[in-house]
Design brief:
3% helix; globular
């Protein structure tokens, strides 16, 4: 007979599966599997405040930006907020591939939560709040180019510091800051650089002092092939000793690095990092940590040299209690007056793009004018997208189409630096199901091509895209919601610029003049 905590966990896991969560890291028996999030939560950082854990990750050009996730046990995470609704710069009202927020750091100091981040061309930002579920206050601290990956630190005497790097990775530069963390007080001092031992140094994360040492963590070696290093010194300005504490070793987890170290309520240490998995983005792993001779050893250390390698399964962190399985949100019935936290737009959102109250239980996406390259999705800011959250899945949406002008279209897409888009479109001869593709080559967006077009005598359609574990996607459609027909063949998927591929929906038109057309999407369901 099951003990009650185990039975509760198994029932919760069953409930999550029934609610279409495809990737569940909690095994329901006191262990977990990696990755803990099979989705593009790149450059993660994590803190504990009391019994609660909070994680942030890069968003790049997608907005709202910098998701805030919450967990009680470091394994089971849900999205609770975003740090900002939109970046306060006009350029981000248009698609900006590879720009936006890079590698945020989250800290808690004197009752406030702080998130620091840089954009590669706009400088340093900080956001603060007393409650991470509430609105964050965003400050543009420094207008400067080519900074990246900042992290704050408040010393025992109250002096605030900011550690950051340069675009291109490295070196480590330390600034003094005002006590409120919103003003830099000097030009910064270089505290570590060694291009031979620690090339491509980035993702800086200051840790609390320990046994008289200042510690910071930083990955090196590059996104897909790198390792995790730790640096320590008795003086905050150095010189710093360095040690590689995690690498791929004999595992299949390439480039296990760039993340956050955190201590549990019971004194255990853990490390959350990413693995670059191409189309899927930089997925999040959780590793156990032990301390040896004043250095953290991350993961499994079979040869005892102090440099660990990733574990694929392990006992869950001891946080004093057992908590039920959870996963970041995916499916959406569009029943809420607020947009689900799993959704991000391709650029700074505008309220005129959508309505969650005009048709109860639907999201209304207006056919926004997008004349560039005949409504190329590469230039459409109003794509409503979410992360790919499992190695294989099916996404299904039902929509009712209300076009005004020829060319109005609405549908479902799998998008990155190559995209496919299945939509219902108003043509001169009536509605048609049209499948488009387009590609980015040599940093240039090529115009979309029509792969096929078939007439459809309906304004109500169900559209579906399935991703296989071979990273190929297939589209299908239905006019009754029961019988789906494949359309076209299998198509590749590609990651975007610094981000994984995404799946989502859109409604737009290719003309300069606005359209009063729209589409009501009833749901977006992600399933096995």
């Amino acid at each position: 007979m099951y003990k009650q905590p185990l039975l509760t966990a198994l029932l919760c896991c069953f409930s999550i599966c029934m609610n279409a969560q495809v990737w569940i890291p909690d095994n329901g028996n006191g262990t977990y599997k990696n990755p803990i999030i099979h989705a593009d939560y790149s450059d993660p950082d994590v803190i504990r405040v009391g019994d609660d854990y909070y994680m942030v990750a890069s968003s790049f050009n997608t907005q709202p930006g910098i998701p805030v996730l919450h967990s009680k046990d470091l394994v089971n995470w849900t999205i609770i907020n975003h740090v900002y609704d939109r970046l306060p710069l006009q350029r981000y009202e248009k698609m900006q591939p590879g720009q936006g927020s890079w590698a945020p750091a989250i800290r808690h100091h004197n009752g406030l939560f702080y998130v620091y981040f840089c954009t590669p061309e706009d400088g340093l930002f900080v956001a603060t709040t007393a409650n991470p579920k509430d609105k964050w206050s965003l400050t543009h601290v420094q207008d400067v180019a080519n900074w990246e990956d900042p992290c704050p630190f408040w010393d025992d005497d109250g002096q605030a510091y900011l550690l950051r790097g340069k675009v291109g990775a490295g070196p480590a530069i330390l600034h003094k800051m005002s006590a409120d963390g919103k003003k830099l007080l000097d030009n910064g001092r270089l505290i570590y650089e060694d291009l031979k031992k620690q090339p491509v140094l980035e993702g800086f994360k200051f840790m609390d002092k320990r046994d008289g040492y200042y510690y910071f963590a930083a990955p090196a070696g590059g996104v897909a092939t790198g390792w995790q290093s730790i640096f320590r010194s008795k003086n905050i300005y150095g010189p710093y000793e360095d040690k590689i504490v995690l690498h791929q070793g004999n595992t299949s987890v390439n480039g296990p690095h760039q993340g956050g170290l955190v201590e549990t309520q019971t004194g255990e240490w853990w490390f959350i990092h990413f693995q670059d998995k191409g189309v899927y983005g930089r997925i999040a792993h959780l590793q156990p940590v032990t301390w040896k001779d004043g250095w953290p050893v991350i993961g499994n250390d079979p040869d005892g040299d102090g440099t660990g390698e990733p574990v694929m399964s392990y006992k869950k962190p001891n946080v004093g209690k057992t908590h039920p399985p959870a996963a970041p949100q995916t499916s959406d019935e569009f029943d809420s007056p607020q947009l689900g936290l799993q959704w991000q737009w391709q650029a700074a959102p505008k309220r005129e793009w959508f309505d969650l109250t005009a048709s109860k239980g639907n999201i209304r996406l207006y056919t926004i004018s997008n004349p560039t390259d005949s409504a190329s999705l590469f230039y459409a800011p109003n794509l409503l997208l979410q992360k790919i959250t499992a190695p294989a899945f099916t996404a299904t949406t039902k929509l009712q189409f209300h076009p005004q002008n020829t060319g109005d279209r609405a549908g479902i897409t799998m998008t990155g630096n190559y995209y496919t888009f299945l939509c219902i479109e108003k043509t001169k001869s009536g509605n048609a199901l049209v499948l488009y593709e387009a590609i980015r080559e040599n940093r240039k967006f090529l115009a979309p091509k029509i792969l096929l077009s078939i007439p459809v005598n309906s304004n109500n359609v169900w559209l579906q895209v399935s991703l296989s574990d071979k990273e190929m996607c297939r589209y299908s459609y239905s006019t009754d919601g029961k019988n789906f027909k494949n359309i076209g063949s299998e198509y590749r998927t590609e990651k975007g610029t610094w981000i994984g591929a995404k799946v989502g929906i859109a409604s737009l038109n290719p003309h300069l003049l606005p359209s009063k057309g729209y589409a009501d999407f009833d749901y977006f369901k992600v399933s096995r």
